[in-house]
Amino acid sequence: MRLRALAKINLGLDVVRKREDGYHEVRMIMQTINMYDQLEIDIKEEPGISITTNLPFIPTNENNLVYKAAQLLMDEFKVKKGITVDLQKFIPVAAGMAGGSSDAAAAMIGVNRLFGLGLTVRELMERSVKVGADVPYCLLRGTALAEGIGEKLRALPPCPDCYVLIGKPPVSVSTKFVYEKLDASEIAEHPEIDRMLEGLQWHNLNRIAEHMGNVLESVTIPAYPVIEEIKQHMKDHGAVNAMMSGSGPTVFGLFDDKAAAEQACEALRETKIARTVFLTTVFNNGGRHR
Ligand SMILES: C[C@@](CO)(OP(=O)(O)O)[C@H](O)COP(=O)(O)OP(=O)(O)OC[C@H]1O[C@@H](n2ccc(N)nc2=O)[C@H](O)[C@@H]1O
Ligand SMILES: Nc1ncnc2c1ncn2[C@@H]1O[C@H](COP(=O)(O)OP(=O)(O)O)[C@@H](O)[C@H]1O
Fold first, then answer.
1. Report field, pTM of the whole predicted structure over 0.80
2. Known binder of ligand: residue 243?
3. Distance, CA 233 to ligand 2 centroid (Å)?
4. 3-state SS, residue 230
5. At 229, is the secondary structure helix, strand, or coil?
């Protein structure tokens, strides 16, 4: 069975407070984009989970989020057989795009279908937060408000169609490191998530873009100033707005004009400040995972 694991960007990311257990309560506007990893999942007679991948530096053992997600369901339902998973990664790793979380979500969809477990997407979402805070959203997809640690989700009116330019500098960022460095009581400026919600309600891309903000930039950008350079480059080349996604270091720029987006993409490639440069669109089909 072949499945696509789609990447996300955070159109807005606010941190409300730090909890006793170290996790942070957030208010985020999530958006799925048309950039994806591909999973080929099949049943094998012998028990166990065997993972192969095109990237030599990511784990193929129980540290892979695909392994964790599949094992969670296979243990609960006492599945006797095993699975093989071939994971073709195209989403940048440790980039703030939820690549691993989305692979985990796809693995849960796959195991549920292959073994006929009969769980609804909602039931998978409830279990998936154990694998990672972003996994429930990766199961839901589309435009959504995420609260709690990211697992309390409300589907929102879809983000207006637009072009999304991705630029990832050649550095990797650990989500844990960024949250640990953030002082939640000292956030200078909180993004106006409610204004963004209005923008979505009115289907107004400019209104949404105007209020984009990510409090984690205050940790990641001082560590990697190249992020600011990429943002500025996108804005100078016609982006309606540009911002860091999640804990970074990936920057995305939103464009309402295809020609401008293509020119900005070419110009960013030429600078070589970003290693991965990719032009895509927002994904709003929702519904069925394929
Ligand atoms: C920042 C965000 C924004 O969408 O995404 P990424 O940059 O990772 O893509 C998420 O909040 C990341 O979610 P996710 O990557 O699933 O987090 P987890 O694996 O559950 O947690 C990794 C570490 O981040 C911290 N963490 C995570 C989520 C949260 N709400 N508060 C936290 O403090 C915890 O220290 C945890 O040990
Ligand atoms: N399926 C997976 N794909 C990518 N990384 C994974 C996966 N499973 C576990 N990891 C580990 O998780 C770390 C962060 O993964 P990733 O999901 O790409 O980060 P982010 O959520 O910031 O985009 C990596 O450094 C990698 O070692």
1. yes
2. no
3. 27
4. helix
5. helix
Bond before 56 cis per omega within 30 degrees: no
Going residue by residue through the chain, which has 290 residues, state the pLDDT in tens, using 9 for 90 and above: 999 999 999 999 999 999 999 999 999 999 999 999 999 999 999 999 999 999 999 999 999 999 999 999 999 999 999 999 999 999 999 999 999 999 999 999 999 999 999 999 999 999 999 999 999 999 999 999 999 999 999 999 999 999 999 999 999 999 999 999 999 989 999 999 999 999 999 999 999 999 999 999 999 999 999 999 999 999 999 999 999 999 999 999 999 999 999 999 999 999 999 999 999 999 997 656 66
Closest ligand relative to 56 C-alpha: 2
128 pocket-lining for ligand 1 (C-beta < 6 Å): no
- ipTM, two decimals: 0.97
Residue 216 Cβ < 6 Å to ligand 2: no
Q: Where are the alpha helices (DSSP H) in 17-98?
A: 65-76
Ligand 1 pocket, residue 10 CB under 6 Å: yes
Token pair for 237: 């080349």
Is 101 a pocket residue for ligand 2 (Cβ < 6 Å)? yes
Q: Is 286 left (phi over 0), alpha (psi -120 to 50) or beta?
A: left
Cα 215 to Cα 219: distance, rounded to the nearest angstrom: 8
DSSP 8-state secondary structure symbol assigned to residue 282:
B
Domains and CATH numbers, the chain: 2-155 (3.30.230.10), 163-281 (3.30.70.890)
Q: Which residues contact 276 (CB under 8 A, 6 or more apart)?
A: 92, 95, 166, 167, 168, 250
Q: Give catalytic residues, as residue numbers.
A: 8, 134
> Which protein residue has the closest C-alpha to ligand 1 atom 30?
149
What residues pair up with 79 in beta bridges, in sequence order? none
Q: Which of 113, 96, 94, 95 is nearest to 105 (CA)?
A: 113
